[in-house]
Design a protein that fits this description.
Blueprint: H1 3-14, H2 16-25, H3 27-40, H4 44-90, H5 98-114, H6 116-133, H7 138-148, E1 252-253, E2 272-273, H8 277-285
Parallel strand pairs: 1-2
Length: 291
């Protein structure tokens, strides 16, 4: 037997398991393969050609089987990740303890960072919904803000940059909002009463219509082009805040609410200014204060 035939036979033998599986599953493949094997020993040139075809077919079937196994492993991994996502979301449910909810938050953050293409936006949407509706465990809500809405301590930047936080109606009373990244967020009707801000709090281009920020003595940060229409800001003071382009149309303010702002270039302030507490309470009783 020639050296070429020996090499082809060895190749055929190495892929025999894959080829055997294909033959068992497909009778037509079996018939064609038997004809090729008969031709392989018919004559020198014809036999070599036939044997080459047989070895090539075996190699092809081996490749196809490998791809099939690879796809199966990929599907299994995707199913495992999907299950992990579902379990983590379930940990945020109402009635869960703080430690369980915080564990779910950490798990979702890790999942988003390991698989950003598929899960980054999904996880962020889940977290925003959790912050909007979580009224039982304030500690869990604060931890969600710390993990997902603030810049990290390293120099890698804000991982969730570019995603819009939908926090309309959220109860963020007394929350620590120092260094938050809520640029472009929807905070319509949210309650930020007694919350804590810092000069690095970023609310640039956020919708803060009808927001409540009373009793915040130091509202700091970047509020460029924010919408404060009908916002309830009595008792609050902007200290060193950037309010360029902000819109305060029909907002409720004290006379000194904006006195210590860092800048208010092009800000719109045709506001209803309430000068004292008695007048404010009188207007609230008349139903004139935005709810």
């Amino acid at each position: 037997m020639s050296k070429e035939k020996c090499q082809l036979l060895l190749s055929l033998r190495s892929n025999w398991d894959d080829l055997r599986g294909e033959i068992v599953q497909n009778p037509l493949t079996c018939l064609v393969f038997m004809i090729i094997l008969i031709c392989a020993f018919w004559g020198s040139s014809v036999g070599n050609a036939a044997l080459f075809v047989a070895a090539s077919a075996a190699g092809f079937f081996a490749y196809r089987r490998a791809k099939f196994v690879e796809q199966g492993m990929k599907n299994t991994e995707e199913s495992r990740i999907d299950e992990r996502f579902s379990r983590s979301c379930a940990m945020l449910g109402n009635g869960k303890g703080e430690s369980v909810q915080i564990g779910g938050l950490i798990s979702l953050d890790n999942l988003a960072r390991k698989h950003p293409g598929e899960y980054k936006e999904k996880v962020f949407s889940v977290i925003c919904a959790f912050v909007r509706t979580s009224n039982e465990n304030k500690k869990s809500s604060q931890e969600a803000i710390n993990i997902f809405l603030k810049k990290g301590t390293d120099d890698s930047g804000y991982f969730y940059a570019g995603l819009k936080a939908i926090l309309s109606g959220a109860d963020l009373k007394s929350m620590n909002l120092e260094d938050v990244c809520l640029s472009g967020a929807d905070l319509t009707g949210a309650n930020l009463t007694e919350s804590v801000f810092s000069e690095n709090s970023d609310f640039n281009h956020s919708n803060m219509k009808k927001i409540k920020m009373g009793s915040v003595t130091q509202i700091r940060g970047n509020f460029t082009n924010c919408i404060f229409e009908e916002a309830y800001l009595q008792g609050g003071k902007f200290e060193g805040a950037v309010l360029d382009g902000a819109n305060f149309n029909k907002a409720w303010l004290h006379a000194d609410t904006l006195d210590n702002a860092q800048s208010m270039k092009d800000a719109k302030i045709p506001a209803l200014v309430v000068h004292d507490k008695l007048e404010a309470e009188h207007n609230i009783q008349k139903g004139e204060n935005p709810s």
